[in-house]
Design brief:
mainly alpha, 7 helices, 76% helix, globular
Length: 197
């Protein structure tokens, strides 16, 4: 029964990615392509590693956390308004992220593969966290809200509490919270300073 919660989370994640794509075509969201590409690759690796070690329903949010960014990455080439200039810092994060993926290919251990997937995904997140902090108007928070809900929902269907089942989900909760704070920090600061929380 709880798997329906995971399916709902996956659908919300997909809808959130369509919201982001829509805001790209409106000229609002400007994705950092390095982040979104690497965000697609690393969860696919974590999905494979988790599935190969016996994780089933709990792996769906991890898969969706790769599939949705992949859609956004693809549509960023279609929408001319979605351009964000990449800097040397972005490419350095991509190199580190790619290096973590290469290390994953050198191991057949699912737990180590997930650690490398987390490192890769985290390195890919840094450019968007930085961009969200300085230019929050260029981001749409809905994919991160959807990702947070989806990851939390997956905890309810974990059948065996092992590292391969909860590690990437825990990371997803943390990184989505960081991104949401980065995007909304100015609004949060105003609310806190005026006592309107």
């Amino acid at each position: 029964m709880l798997q329906y919660l995971v399916i709902l989370g996956a659908l919300l994640s997909l809808l959130a990615s369509f919201s982001y794509i829509h805001s790209m075509f409106k000229g609002e969201a400007k994705p950092n392509r390095i982040s979104w590409l690497m965000w697609a690759i690393a969860p696919f690796i974590a999905t494979w590693a988790g599935f190969s070690s016996g994780v089933r329903w709990a792996i769906l949010p991890v898969f969706m956390s790769g599939f949705s960014p992949f859609l956004i990455f693809l549509f960023s080439f279609i929408s001319k308004k979605a351009y964000w200039k990449l800097e040397a810092f972005d490419y350095m994060c991509a190199l580190f992220s790619g290096f973590a993926l290469v290390l994953w290919t050198l191991t057949k251990n699912a737990d180590i593969a997930i650690i490398f997937a987390i490192l890769s995904d985290g390195a890919a997140a840094i450019p968007t966290i930085s961009k969200s902090w300085t230019n929050p108007e260029t981001e749409n928070m809905f994919p991160f809200v959807g990702g947070l809900f989806s990851a939390i929902a997956a905890f309810f269907v974990i059948q065996e509490w092992k590292f391969s089942a909860y590690a990437f989900l825990t990371y997803l909760v943390i990184v989505n919270i960081i991104l949401l704070i980065s995007i909304n920090r100015r609004k949060l600061f105003v609310k806190i300073s005026t006592g309107n929380l």
